[in-house]
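Interim report, section 4.2 (structural modelling).
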Amino acid sequence: MTSPDVSPRARAHPQLVPLWRGLVVYRVVTLVAALVNVARFAGEWARPALGVAVVAVMVAWTAVSSVRYLRRGDAGTAVADLLITALATASTLLVDTPERLAQGGSVITTVWSAGPVLAMAIALGWRGGLAGAVVTVGVLFGVRRALDGDLLFDAQLLVIAGLAVGLAADTMRRLVEQLRAAAAREAATAERERLARDIHDGVLQVLALVRRRGDELARTSTADDSAPGLELARLAGEQEVALRRLITSAPTPGPDGTVDLSSRLAGVLPAHASLAVPAEPVLLPATVVDELAAVVREGAGNAAAHAGPGAGLWVLVEDDPAAVTVSLRDDGVGIPEGRLDEAVAEGHLGVAASMRGRVDALGGTITLHTGPGEGTEWEVVVPRRRKP
Amino acid sequence: MTVRVMVVDDHPIWREGVARDLAEREVDVVATAPDGAAAVRIAKAVRPDVVLMDLQLPELSGAQATEQIRTALPDTRVLVLSASTEHGDVIEAVRAGASGYLVKSAGMDELVDAVTRTAAGQAVFSPGLAGLVLGEYRRRETEAPDAPQLTPRETEVLRLVAKGLTARAIATRLTLSHRTVENHVQNSLRKLQLTNRVELTRYAIERGLDADE
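Predicted structure of the assembly:
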């Protein structure tokens, strides 16, 4: 994996390298079987010279394809392998006599012809393995022209091998993706923390201090001139919170176009709101994060408009393997029972319809707990879509 | 009884400012320290009730200093007071034995109240910290399934804390006593701080003994 001749493609799935090595060993061993076959039956063939030429091509292609599999492990080579092997197998029709074929003589490529099925499976997963098996069986049938027990047995083995190896390759590939996602998340967090640390040591300390000094001024001075001190304290406090938000909301790009929901929400919420999040980034597809941010913005806007003066706002983000939950609560006057449903029924596209619509589109659920004097509490649950 | 406090921060102006503010409010500031190593050394000598701990410190980090102080002086409680936005550092400090977390922008009244509560053995739980602790347990569910998890009730209480409800409001909503709510919060912190087998076993036995409560 660290050798310089390995191309990015192979490095993209280093876990597959052992499978490719296994395939190459299989190819070389079965090539020997094909050579033995030539040595034994070339005398009985209709066109021995052509047969020897085909086997020569098989030797050359085994060498070329093996090198490409080990270095790149690309799907192109696997497909080329499938076609070249199919042609070589089909050439049996010209090389051998119809009589020998009718008696069940083996194709010129022997078990070597199963190689591309495994290659397709490793490169393209179970679908590739299945496709390779179907093509290979098709060519075998074209040569033998008989649906006998041998052919059915070969077909079974090829399909099983293609599926099994393909599923194994799929699993390995998925594991690599998961590892990479975890590594990317770690790197993103580390970078954000480094930035935050730099700012923390300077500006935030000073702002917090200004706030404290302002408070002190306001406390120790006479009532008349306490206003400037209070104002100073308030402004510094607000700026400290805003800056801390800014650091936390520094974009944390995740793998595969995912975005950190926590940072995004930090940018959406007003400075006085409380945002409770897990320590690690909550990575979701950018479109999902956009929609959730819009839902929270609407909920926060609604709270600002209706909760009443001095109401607090709290947001909690929870990240489970199966779903992400965003709770939004204010301690304002609350919404009278049925008021939201009424609004929707009357055709007013109010906050409820808009928020529900967005959450529905994400395949999630949104519930509202409220009552007069009880504040408003939204809970949005959006399922995490599993990777295929 | 006056609470004896030690202030640990590497910024001299801030450190002295907090110390003076606390002193004005009848809190007995017995010592200050500019770095983690000094904090551990001085704490062992003066045995404060509460250590106000910054997280980013030279020599030893706030979390490391917290761990050493808690190990040497089990009766001394650590309250993290940090402008830190590093969620990971906060969780680390809590795991190391801190019993609460307050941001530096908190007002003086809030700080004095938090110091008093910390000295009384209560956990100082902001909504933000509740979110971090919930997240930490979720992470452990997948990464360390053998470690103690939250009970459904503890999860419920923490979620309400994270949503900004006061202990009193939570008690009313869940029809629990105020003290039971405090206990749930405390237990959720304690379980994060259990690191070795002996502690785990002791915890399990205690839980078994007061399961009827």
